[in-house]
Model the fold of this input.
Amino acid sequence: MIYDYDNLPVSSALLTLTSPEDVKINFTVYSDINGRFDFGEVNAGMYTIEGYKAGYEDILENFTFADARQIVYIKTASLEQLLEKAYNSFENSAYDEAKNYIERAENLDHQNEKALFYEALLYLETQDITKSKALVVLSENYKDYASKRHYVIPEAEEKLYLDMNWQVADE
Done:
């Protein structure tokens, strides 16, 4: 069964089962509306499941089947779920965690404006001001990042401070 980070089934994911022990094993199926998939009767042994669904992280799981009745549970994250996790990490000042989620989101869509915006915020939070230029361009598009801090955008002609509502604030 394949689920996302909200424990909702992921339907129509393309899944392939292979075995390093038997090159003849190469089965491909799609998950159903409930996230279920069935490769048929599989003997005990070591296997790999690779999976793909647009908008979700790719799947690469190695496991050992003990018997044919074993159920495999796989978790994958959508782009929006990764960005939500990054947002929550910012709220908790967990910047290494936020960086991980942002990088994973950018692997799914390297031009996603929200991911680029969060990356700029990460650079601001970690005092890497030279890499935060994207914030100047993207700040108007994403006002949903709430914070108790003011953000200084040094590249602006005048020092520009944004408050938690993304309004220009006094120093």
Observations:
- DSSP finds four helices and eight strands in the chain.
- The chain has a mean pLDDT of 79.
